[in-house]
Amino acid sequence: MLEMVIETRLHNIGAFDVGRVLPFRKRRMVGPFIFFDRMGPQHFAAPITTDADVLPHPHTGLATVTYLFEGTMTHRDSLGVQQQIRPGELNWMSAGSGISHSERFDDMRATGGNLDGIQAWVALPKEFEESDPSFQHFDEQQLPLLEDAMFRGRLIAGKAFGCEAPVDVFSPLFYVDLQVKAGGRIPLPMPYTERAIYVAKGCIEYGGHRYESGHMLVFTPGADPDVRAVGDARVMLLGGESVGERFMWWNFVASSKERLEQAKADWQSGRIALPPMDNDAFIPLPEQ
After folding, report:
1. In the predicted structure, residue 16 carries a pLDDT above the cut 90
2. Separation in Å, CA 142 to CA 149, 157, 161, 189, 262
3. Got the DSSP string for 23-55?
4. What is the DSSP string of 160-197?
5. How far apart are CA 3 and CA 221, in angstroms?
């Protein structure tokens, strides 16, 4: 039933390290999820300098899914959207043919504080790769509540457990934040082909083995595994149906290498606009 276990690898993004899970050399995607980074947990001393901010940068062919456990960030994009991101809220930005955005610590700058959360990317189906970019934001109370005697959580995106999240998605998927009591069984939505559990906090047990925070367990299609929390735990459930092979370079995702080359040229030539409220600096195209 257990296809593989992926361990977090530390990856430096400039001012701090993130825990990268996807893509992994033996498993590039889980359903349409092609990128999965853990931002934290980490503490920023006051004042937080602008060196820690993520300057405007581009995306194509994907949707960014930002979800925080702690801290706040300010999102600004080339559509003119400015949105504060707080714990439990969903920021879903569909890049389509091309968008740029920045992520800054405006509200935490003077006081410092803790940051923790997940930055995920969902690859768009080929027929939506050239769609117009869009942005959606939902408060925690707008996300369906999932609750029984042993767990409580929110359906962030897609469909699962008889519920449907309000965000518009482009392919069958699910994304769940679940807090599970000690000994509680962790359910996996059916009947999706590709499914995984990421341990965000605590420890879980499956098949006589224990997996602590930072591990992602990927299960075979059709499996109904008996996964349980060892002590109180917090997990992310994710997956869905495959959208086919995808190529990724820097912040671009595409169904062909030729489309990646176009994305590079679009950013380098300025055809992807900068956020109108954050256009004094940007991240240039990497040389490699």
Report:
1. no
2. 22, 11, 17, 20, 37
3. SBTTB--BTTEEEEEEEEEEEEPSSPPGGGSEE
4. ETTEE-SS--SSSEEEEEEEE-TT-B----SS-SEEEE
5. 9
Region for 250 from its dihedrals, namely left if φ exceeds 0, alpha if ψ lies in -120 to 50, beta otherwise: left
Is the pTM for the entire model greater than 0.85?
yes
Q: Are strands 145-147 and 151-160 parallel, antiparallel or unpaired?
A: antiparallel
Taking only the tens place, the pLDDT of each residue in 202-236 is 999 999 999 999 999 999 999 899 999 999 999 99
214: left (phi over 0), alpha (psi -120 to 50) or beta: left
**Structure tokens that stand for 48 in this block:** 């937080």
Centre a 10 Å sphere on the Cβ of residue 234 and count the other Cβ atoms it contains. 18
Residue with tokens 């995106």: 157
What span, in angstroms and rounded, lies between the C-alpha atoms of 284 and 268? 7
DSSP-derived letter for residue 129 is T
What is the tens place of the pLDDT at every residue in 260-287? 999 999 999 999 999 999 999 999 999 8
Question: What phi and psi, each to the nearest 5 degrees, are found at residue 76?
Answer: -135, 135
Check residue 25 and give its pLDDT.
93
Diameter over CA atoms, the chain: 55
How many C-beta atoms surround the C-beta of residue 125 within 10 A? 15
Torsion, Cα 213 249 159 205, to 10 degrees, reads -20
Q: What is the CA radius of gyration of the chain?
A: 18
Phi and psi, residue 257, nearest 5° = -70, -30
| Among the listed residues 11, 84, 23, 65, the one whose alpha carbon sits nearest the alpha carbon of residue 177 | 65
How many Å apart are CA 275 and CA 75, to the nearest integer?
10
